[in-house]
Amino acid sequence: MWVWALFDLPVTTPLERKRATRFRKDLLDMGFEMVQFSVYTRFSASKRRAEALAKRVGALVPPDGKVDILFFTDKQYELIQSYRGQSSRSNRSKPAQLELF
What is the pTM of this model? Predict the structure, then answer.
């Protein structure tokens, strides 16, 4: 299960910019990766963990900020088509599963 955080945060004042930067840093600290400037994604092993992660993100939203959380299955994630310049990248795959002993 993939969790995507899409957000729009106010950055008019220095305090708002500081809060927006803190929010982005918190997402990175939680293991998210930046897809675009206001779009971050992270793989989660289960729907239950994905929902718990979404609640953690929701608790970090700065005042007047707007954050949407999207959930994608592995199959849906693999169907995403990304275009960069003249090249395209599709057929994504989930990260390798780690075994802990």
Answer: 0.79
100 in a structural domain: no
The token duo for 4 is 């995507």
Q: What is the pLDDT of residues 25-39, one digit of tens each?
A: 999 999 999 999 999
Task: Establish if 61 belongs to a structural domain.
Answer: yes
Q: Bridge partners of 68?
A: 6
Report residue 82's pLDDT band, with 50, 70 and 90 as the boundaries.
confident
38: domain CATH number is 3.30.70.240
What is the rounded CA–CA span in Å between residue 70 and residue 13? Answer: 29
d(CA 77, CA 4): 10
For the chain, percent helix, then strand, then coil, each to nearest 5? 35, 30, 40
